[in-house]
Amino acid sequence: MLLWVDIATTGLDWTRHHLLEVAVVPTTDQLQFILDTPERGWHYVVAPPVDPWETWDLTDDHDQAIAFEHNESGLLEAINSHGAPSWWVDNDLSDRVSNLTLGEQVTLAGADIARFDSHWLSWHLPKVSQFINPFTIDVMEVGRALAAFTGDDLGLRVEASRAGDRALEAVDLGRQLRSYLLGP
Predict the structure, then answer these.
(1) Which of 14, 45, 152, 153 is most buried by its number of CB atoms within 10 A?
(2) Domains of the chain
(3) Model-level pTM?
């Protein structure tokens, strides 16, 4: 089983910034959706312990870009209307993952997760992290390695601005890579 994960945060430093959104889409190893729901998984808007605007230095270009993206996507409004504390998200999501996996560890998958999302999960959602084995499948890293090896730009991109849609796009990228490597 694979857990396709995408998150949104107030910045890049998991020890200083805050988790704002997490989406988890479980699939089989053959990339078939397991849950028969519209989102195909679980999506949480996380209320950080401080106002996200307090964590951004708006004189910094990167912080400006993050603030703009989260405001434009509607995430900041969603946090104000129905954000849940991270401890609640950790408890609820770990219960769901445990029930689905029967307590077994699973592989984390997604787009650009190897360098970012996996660290965030271990820091901010420790109960969920106990179900993740040490291996990750990062479709963007695989795509970059294939492009470097073959010279073929596979056109792998994640365009969505909200975590739930990005997690679904990552599953699609996984399917594209699987088809590229193994054939249809």
Answers:
(1) 45
(2) 2-182 (3.30.420.10)
(3) 0.88
